[in-house]
Input
Amino acid sequence: MQFFLDTGNIDEIKQALDWGILDGVTTNPTLISKTGRSFMEVAKEIVKLVDGPVSLETVSLNAEGMIKEGRMLAELGDNVVVKIPMTPEGVKAIQVLESDGIPVNVTLIFSPAQALIAAKAGATFVSPFIGRIDDVSGEGMKLIREVKTIFDNYDIDTEIIVASVRHPMHVVEAALIGADICTMPFEVMKKLFNHPLTDKGLEQFLKDWEKVPGRPF
Ligand code: G3P
Output
């Protein structure tokens, strides 16, 4: 499963790149607004830093506007993926952008039917939002299982980006289901490394090492 960071923060992206586990980045207007920086400045910097796909979101509500913004965003780099919301106008825009050769990530997916429509329109990626479903007492991971089953049933190539991730178990469950990608906040990625028994075990090894005679280092 590929790991994407869901962020607009350059320092977080640099840290994940340094760890060598970053496959791509997703952003949205909320994440960009948190940086307090100019959209174009941040977008250009991320696209240059990351080799993998970088999702940048359109904000128009009609297909014409989405297509115009999508084409403009795609000029920022070959790795740009245009994020389009799951609406009837969005579905029209997906078809035009994909036929231009611009990959689309369909965002704000909350049902298997929406994912199926996005795939039928030729989207490269769909982003089901699991955390927001959990937040309203639903079962976000059930959506991932259903979308995966539907895509497998029909050999659909559209890749599933598990989005709106809240904790490490979301990442593990996404991998167990076989989702293609999980996009996560930096805090979740950091937590993936941790286990208290690793810390405890390392502390003991280092303590015992001090008792070993003839230590070369
Ligand atoms: O980028 C889309 C998605 O991951 C947003 O997550 O935490 O705002 O529900 P969240």
Remarks:
- Strands lie at 2-6, 24-26, 54-57, 80-85, 104-109, 125-128, 159-162, 181-184.
- The pocket of SN-glycerol-3-phosphate is lined by residues 6, 26, 28, 129, 131-132, 163-164, 183 (CB under 6 Å).
